[in-house]
Design a protein that fits this description.
By secondary structure, the chain is α+β, with helices and mostly antiparallel strands. The protein folds into 3 domains: 139 residues, Immunoglobulin-like (Sandwich), CATH 2.60.40; 136 residues, Sandwich (Immunoglobulin-like), CATH 2.60.40; 238 residues, 3-Layer(aba) Sandwich (Rossmann fold). Helices cover 19% and strands 29% of the residues. It contains 12 helices and 26 strands. The strands form 6 sheets. Strands 17, 18, 21, 22, 24, 25 and 26 form a 7-stranded mixed β-sheet that branches. A 4-stranded antiparallel β-sheet has the order 4-1-8-7. Helix 6 runs antiparallel to helix 7 and helix 8 runs parallel beside helix 9. It is globular and about 80 Å long. This is C2 domain-containing protein. Keywords: Calcium, Cell membrane, Lipoprotein, Membrane, Metal-binding, Plant defense, Repeat. It comes from Arachis hypogaea (Peanut).
Length: 599
């Protein structure tokens, strides 16, 4: 995701090394110009679900997908003790003059000359003039851990803006344009606000993906009192001679012989196997002034050869005496694992018969307030205005039920007292054996009824609900061959009490076809909840030392969504297709063939 990582630990996380679902690319043109998106809160935002729906109706898109990448130079430095933490926000200017947001890059820490890795995918339509605006912000470090898409831009410092049409970029010989940044009155004045370079490249349709484990040995030490903290940045070299960053690994602290986590690159990122790549190894510095340890030119084909021959290749560094010459270093790069796989899309799976099964768990702890009073988070307004619990159920459920054929959803409550006994996983419909209700309407009805029959209590425990959902996912995996993927929505007003037990349950469930979406409602301090959402690049670790095989959690505080320009469903489901794909890849599960699809 386009995670905000202007904090120290966040700046050490990997970017662009795994699955990037098309749904995460914020392609906000409607590719079906004669069709209206019903119930669309994002002004016609492109996503896989909408595409799949229209294609099943016989409509085909009339556009070419292009990826926009960004770099900047000489940005304003608005921070006192460090440099700015810049992020780019891309807009399309509509015919009525209003700006429609297309997407946001990641935040780069302490850098006035950033090269962003996250790309924004845009549907280029030849017959339409598509004016674009690019706004650059300095993101305040106190917003670390918050998804960039939920950031309220009014809380960030404005660094400058620029504008052009999409056709101006794609018709350039280099397919890139450099624009001087201006202030909001569209004049730079006497102050130099820096420049923004935008590059456009048509997306590659190939499904080939490469998974590698990269390792370095005998790196030069750039630190005085400790060892270097190395990370790799991989860039694709383009025809003009420049390079476009496509991924960076996580930082490994205090290590001159690092082995990084597996890197998965799609052909959309590297182009062809012969396309030249620039691989740079840096020593991480919290100031943003990362020190180059060494670099080399290579290609996917070269890296495959290194793996087959079990040999390394030397890093180089520019000579201090002759700039055009390079000095060979002792440090080497190795490819310990190389695997070529077919990278299927989310649509490939759901169109072949895979399903998403929705489950929901509602917080019935006393901190929600008495449901009879209007200040309660559980208060049901007779006028029909939805409370935060109802809103989350409706918005998420309406999307996911599209992918569930029987529309039977398990629904639970936790932290409430039934028949004088506090339960941390009780059936919302009040029946002792069957937790399922029919449709989103069934969840809403069961929730409203439970408010009359359940006494609010506590504490806030997630472990029992997650374990119950995991048991269902495990049974399904054995009986349905991985064609069913479960999505558990937990809605809560407070910080989880059993944090370590919850982490243990999530680590155990990370091997299963399950994602957990958590919505925080009300005014509680949810800072400690961020640890459950591994957006900082660190996977959860159980009390036994076991590490989660993948990130399965997305946490969103409702108030952050309400302050920003993104809907609940967008914020929650942003990572879901990628989590779905990461599970299918880990189990080597492929979409069903026409012969396998049940009739």
């Amino acid at each position: 995701m386009g995670g905000c990582f202007s904090d120290l630990e966040g700046g050490k996380q990997a970017v662009g090394v795994g699955f990037r679902s098309h749904q995460n690319q914020n392609q906000n043109q409607n590719p079906y110009p004669n069709q209206q998106h019903q119930g669309d809160n994002n002004n016609g935002a492109h996503n896989d679900a909408v595409d799949f729906f229209f294609k099943t109706k016989g409509f085909q898109p009339m556009f070419t997908q292009v990826e926009l990448s960004f770099s900047a130079s000489n940005l304003l430095d608005l921070d006192i003790t460090s440099k700015s933490d810049p992020m780019v926000v891309v807009y399309e200017k509509k015919q009525n003059g209003k700006l429609q947001e297309l997407g946001r890059t990641e935040v780069i820490m302490n850098n006035l000359n950033p090269e962003w890795i996250e790309k924004i995918t845009v549907a280029f339509q030849f017959e339409i003039v598509q004016p674009l605006e690019f706004h650059v912000y300095d993101v305040d470090s106190k917003y670390h851990g918050i998804t960039t898409k939920t950031l309220n831009l009014k809380d960030q410092d404005f660094l400058g803006q620029a504008s052009c049409t999409l056709s101006e970029i794609v018709t350039k010989h280099s397919r890139s344009i450099t624009l001087n940044l201006q202030n909001k009155t569209r004049h730079g004045g006497s102050r130099n606000l820096g420049a923004l370079t935008i590059r456009a490249e048509e997306t590659v349709a190939s499904k080939i993906a490469i998974e590698m484990i990269l390792r370095c040995s005998h790196l030069d030490n750039k630190d005085i009192f400790s060892k270097s903290d190395p990370f790799l940045r991989i860039s694709r070299v383009v025809e003009s001679g420049g390079s476009v960053p496509i991924c960076k690994t996580e930082v490994i602290n205090n290590n001159l012989n690092p082995t990084w986590r597996p890197v998965t690159l799609s052909s959309r990122q590297f182009g062809s196997k012969e396309n030249p790549l620039l691989i740079e190894c840096f020593d991480f510095n919290s100031s943003g002034d990362h020190v180059l340890i060494g670099k080399l030119r290579s290609s996917i084909a070269d890296l495959e050869r290194l793996n087959k021959e079990r040999t390394g290749t030397n890093l180089f560094i520019p000579s201090t005496h002759h700039r055009k010459e390079e000095k060979m270093l002792k440090g080497q790069l190795f490819v310990d694992q190389y695997c070529e796989k077919e990278q299927f899309s989310f649509i490939d799976y759901v169109s072949s018969g895979f399903e998403l099964n929705f489950m929901v768990a509602v917080d019935f702890t006393a901190s929600n307030g008495n449901p009879r009073y209007s200040d309660s988070l559980h208060y049901i307004d007779v006028s029909g205005q939805l409370n935060s619990y109802q809103r989350a159920i409706m918005e998420v459920g309406e999307v996911i039920q599209f992918y569930d054929s029987d529309r039977k959803f398990p629904a639970w409550g936790f932290g409430g007292s039934t028949a004088g006994v506090v339960s941390h996983c009780f059936n919302l419909n009040g029946t002792p054996r069957d937790s399922e209700v029919v449709g989103v309407e069934g969840i809403m009805d069961a929730y409203a009824t439970a408010l009359h029959n359940v006494t609010l209590s506590g504490p806030t425990l997630f472990g029992p609900v997650i374990n119950t959902a995991a048991e269902m996912a495990a049974k399904s995996l054995a009986s349905h061959n991985g064609t069913k993927y479960y999505v558990l929505l937990i809605i809560t007003d407070g910080v989880v009490t059993d944090l370590q037990e919850t982490i243990n349950a999530l680590v155990k469930a990370s091997d299963l076809p399950l994602s957990v979406l958590i919505v925080g409602v009300g005014g509680a301090d949810f800072t400690n909840m961020e640890v459950l959402d591994a957006d900082n690049g660190r996977r959860l670790e159980g009390s036994s030392g076991r590490i989660a095989t993948r990130d399965i959690v997305q946490f969103v505080p409702m108030r952050e969504v309400q302050r920003g320009s993104i809907s609940v469903v967008q914020a929650l489901l942003e990572e879901l297709p990628g989590q779905f794909l990461s599970f299918m890849l880990s189990r080597d599960i492929k979409p069903l063939t026409s012969q396998q699809v049940p009739h």
